[in-house]
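Email to the structure team, subject: CLN6 protein model.

Hi all, the expression group asked for a predicted structure before they design truncation constructs. Nothing fancy, just the tokens so they can compare against earlier work. One-line instruction: predict CLN6 protein, return tokens.
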Amino acid sequence: YIPFFLILFIYFTGCFTAAAQQSRMPLPALLLVGPSSLYYWYLVTEGQIFILFIFTFFAMLALVLHQRRKGLLLDSNGLFLFLSFIITLLLIALWVGWLWNDRILRKKYPGVIYIPEPWAFYTLHMNNLHAKQSL
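Reply from the structure team: attached below.
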């Protein structure tokens, strides 16, 4: 996953413009931010790569703040990627908050960073639900 996030960050470094009119996202791009964010959420949670994701996000945030001081804004591609990462971070927070008190998953994922895998949740809770309904 390291090369993937490194490539994303390198791509992101080229997504700045001085023209304000180029820093708007068209409507179709806004509609795709949701599916993109869900993809990153699944990638981060199932792959257990939150540390890599959060470091990439903070590097992107630092770059945005640095470039803003130079008078540069994100173009539509950069806005899309940055907004996808922000929504992904919110989705991860909601996921962790929802499963915070799950005793079984807490035992499976001990430690300071608690981010359960979606597949573990499915096999633990949803699979049992399907088995009960088929009886």
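The chain has one domain: 1-134. DSSP finds six helices and two strands in the chain. Ping us if the truncation boundaries need rechecking.
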